[in-house]
Each structure stands twice: as C-alpha cells, then as structure tokens.
Amino acid sequence: MNERQEQLLKFIVESHINLAEPIGSKLLADEGDLEVSGATIRNEMRELEEQGYLTHPHTSSGRIPTEAGYKYYVENIMLSVVLSKKVKSEMEELAQTEKELAAQIKRVGKFIAEWTDSAVVVAFSPDNIYYTGISNLFSQPEFQDYDRVVQFSNIFDQCEDRIEYLFALIKNNQIKILVGGQNPLGAACSLVGTRVRNGGLFVLLGPVRMDYARNASVAEFVSELFE
User: What's the domain of life for this entry (predicted)?
Assistant: First the structure.
C-alpha cells in the first residue's frame, strides 16, 4: 500500500468510526487534506477495494472498511491517543472508593463502559467473570440487525467457555487488539484487552467499528492503574 492509500484508509476508518456511515469521495476531497483530484481519490478507493481493505454497501456509493482494512489500520497506521487528565483522575478516584481489588476494577470498568459506549469484561478465572455495558452495544447501529443481536448475545452465553483463550492470548504488560474474526469470544465484535493485578483480564468489547486508538489507550491506563 502506498502512502496516499494509507492516508485514504486512515481517513475512511476514522471517519467511519465517528459517523457510522459509508464514506464518499466528496467527503475525502473536502476534508481529507489529500490535495488530489476527486477522480484520483475514486481511483485509489477502487484500488483499496480490489485489495480487500474497503467495501461498499449496495445502497451507497461510499466505502466502509473491511476487517482487513481495520487490521491494517491497527497494525500500521493507528496513532496513540492521549487520555485527558480529567478522565484519568476520575478513574483513579473511582478505584480509591473501594477496598477490594475486584471491586475497584469493576467500578472503573463500569465507568469505562459508559464513557466509551462499550461492554467491559473483567475476569480473574473462567468461572469468575463480571461484565457491564451490554446495553451500550445494543444501541450501536451494527446491532440493530436481528442476526447480529443473536451473534452478540452468543458471546455472553459462551463467555465462560471461551474466556480461557483470552487468558492464553493476552500476556502481562501487553495491549492486545483482536478484530472481528480474530476475537475468540465471537466475530460480531472486536476487543481490546490487557492484564491486571492477580492475573486478571480487562477487556473492552465493541463493534468492529470501535475506536481502537482510544480503547487501546484506555486499556493501557487500566493496566498501569492495576499493575
């Protein structure tokens, strides 16, 4: 992928994350800061589609990223996000309101689920799992489709059986991002996970359109807060 195509993919991924709708060449020309013609943009978008990084819904001329597009973005383009002091302070203060580690992590997890519109899973073992924020995902456009709702519901029905895979995949001092089909909990969602004290797991679950950069920064701060 050349530099211009990476710029295009970055803009399309980040715009789609924010807008939840297909991204057209006009928006790219107007706001993409590419300094090339609309025709060139359309040609590059077709090339990215042929390479498997973009696709387009039948009802729109705009493009959306494929799983391959999100994976490329995460692995090669994504920049880290700096969390605000206010958000960090709020998480630190919430942790201090509880005495037990598990209660601290759950309290912070509930805040993060609400702030990021994600579901949060906290696990210390396959039979000691807590999750919150499920309703946040049902409010996302991706989960208005009945089949997607069923797929998503299966994630929590089978969470206890599949969480052991995450214990094996996510190592200490690591931020792990698994996109769609890479996610052992279910391809309907992506996840960003990390380890916390006492061998625990902290996982943010969201649609494949999740804000990976922000969620990775959140997971990193949680890892530091509960190291």
Answer: Bacteria
